[in-house]
Amino acid sequence: MSHTGTSGQPVPQRTAEQATTPREPAQAYAELVAGNRRFVDGTPRHPNQDAGRRAAVADGQHPFAVIVGCSDSRLAAEIIFDRGLGDLFVVRTAGHTAGPEVLGSVEYAVTVLGTPLVVVLGHDSCGAVQATRAASTTGSIPGGHLGAVVDAVLPSLRRAQAQGVDDIDGIVDVHIAQTVETLLEQSPVLADEVAQGRCAVVGLSYRLAAGVVRPVAAVPAGLATVEVPTDPAAPAAA
Ligand SMILES: [Zn+2]
């Protein structure tokens, strides 16, 4: 299928990006890690961010990854994974909680859009995790709807404490792994997609200063050990 711009001329870059859109879990994971590596190295390509891409995806989307991430302003998915329009289906709440609307959004992407990978994205020094630990220590749940965030993170805190993990970043990693489990336990739809091999779920922990992601959980387990291809040297001009 060929694409043409408004002038009728071919738009080769758009076609090239579409041709490389991952359609299975391991490819999608490798693509995300490769993009994060470019971001960390200071060699981003900013793919799929031009007018041609905007036009190409206006009539439909086929994102290759769902990102269930913390709302933290320093955790912008398209930036830290060096992607663009139509690539990532992003669902964000403070502390990447997994309530009904989040689960429904994940199920929409996986079943309707055919997205092959779900990523839970947490980070060091997470304010939601810190607020939860503070609430646990003082015995005082925050007022307003912030209490709902604390309630949602509390089971992860209890699990971390049971494992003897007390530092915030250690608790964050436990919470990421717990969120992966919660998605699969609370969504039989997602669990079935994973069981059929059409989708995978991976938990990534992001470091704010370094910009790098590190896998802390994956279902199936082998996914996070996927070999990431070396980034080709000189990318074509965008
Ligand atoms: Zn956070």
TrEMBL record:
Segment forming the signal sequence: none
Disordered: annotated segments: 1-24
Catalytic reaction annotation: hydrogencarbonate + H(+) = CO2 + H2O
Pfam family name, one: Pro_CA
Gene3D superfamilies: Carbonic anhydrase
Keywords associated with the record: Lyase, Zinc
Keyword Lyase: yes
Extent of Polar residues compositional bias: 1-21
First-tier enzyme category under EC: lyase
EC number, as in UniProt: 4.2.1.1
InterPro entries (UniProt xref): Carbonic_anhydrase, Carbonic_anhydrase_CS, Carbonic_anhydrase_sf
Its job: Catalyzes the reversible hydration of carbon dioxide to form bicarbonate.
Family designation: Belongs to the beta-class carbonic anhydrase family.
Name of the protein: Carbonic anhydrase
Annotated source species: Micromonospora tarensis
